[in-house]
């Protein structure tokens, strides 16, 4: 375990974790926000040629795992990481530096509800990202107990109306014809579809199962800005074998940085 001195001289206990079979070294809080499976899966949704088409925006980036996985998977990809918490943003900058991608990945510290000044300061324009990705907080703060760690509370709880703010911001930043994708708990699917309606079309829903025959635990919802094509369901993605090992396709994603197989991705 290490200690990280963040903005305001805050010292945070951290761990050093490896992603993509050791290709990425990520420092993250020991007791707060912990990036993992969801971030890696979302980063694997798009084909390499899609990621290379222009800058990728990681909204609510935390310590930067989604954007850094994108940069590692596609050497020509560029990414901008947006994070509102000063400590997590500082860790994201540190992770960008330690993975030697500072020439392709940048971090902007801002709250998406009040991001205009920060975006202008970073010379980032609306409607300029062909790909926008988001792994928002999963728990409704009205229904869950507040986390003991302030970082954990920030990264795992949000009010129900804030999901609308996330979808609105993703639409604002996506280029015309650009793709936006969000991973969330399966029970949030109806809320996500409500917030995507009127903003994105050709919406694809990818249900994710821990094991075959069990209820879905996550969904990835993605859509195209300005499209009027109807919603469609992708085949369900199963993560584990009955022996509690990753299925080969998932093992390839987590260990070798492979994209999702074509039937699961855009």
TrEMBL record:
Coiled coil: none
Annotated source species: Hyphomicrobium denitrificans 1NES1
Single GO BP term: methylation
Tree of life domain: Bacteria
UniProtKB keywords: Methyltransferase, S-adenosyl-L-methionine, Transferase
Any one GO molecular-function label of the UniProt entry: methyltransferase activity
Protein name: Methyltransferase small
Chain ranges of the Methyltransferase small domain: 40-145
SUPFAM superfamilies per UniProt: S-adenosyl-L-methionine-dependent methyltransferases
């Amino acid at each position: 375990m290490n200690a990280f001195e963040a903005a305001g001289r805050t010292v945070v206990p951290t761990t050093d974790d490896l992603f993509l079979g050791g290709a990425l070294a990520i420092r993250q809080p020991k007791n707060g926000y912990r990036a993992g499976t969801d971030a890696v899966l979302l980063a694997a949704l798009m084909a390499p040629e899609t990621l290379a088409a222009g800058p990728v925006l990681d909204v609510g980036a935390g310590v930067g795992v989604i954007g850094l996985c994108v940069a590692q998977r596609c050497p020509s990809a560029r990414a901008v990481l947006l994070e509102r918490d000063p400590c997590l943003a500082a860790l994201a900058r540190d992770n960008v530096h330690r993975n030697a991608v500072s020439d392709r990945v940048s971090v902007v510290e801002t709250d998406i509800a009040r991001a205009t000044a920060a975006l202008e300061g970073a010379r980032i324009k609306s409607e300029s990202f062909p790909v926008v990705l988001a792994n928002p907080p999963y728990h409704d703060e009205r229904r869950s107990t507040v986390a003991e760690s302030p970082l954990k509370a920030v990264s795992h709880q949000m009010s129900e109306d804030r999901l609308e703010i996330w979808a609105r911001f993703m639409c604002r930043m996506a280029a015309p014809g650009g793709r936006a994708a969000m991973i969330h708990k399966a029970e949030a699917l109806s809320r996500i579809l409500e917030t995507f309606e009127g903003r994105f079309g050709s919406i694809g829903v990818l249900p994710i199962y821990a094991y075959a025959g069990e209820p879905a635990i996550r969904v990835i919802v993605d859509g195209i800005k300005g499209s009027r094509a109807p919603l469609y369901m992708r085949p369900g993605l199963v993560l584990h074998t009955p022996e509690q090992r990753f299925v080969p396709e998932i093992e390839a994603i987590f260990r070798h940085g492979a994209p999702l197989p074509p039937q699961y991705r855009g």
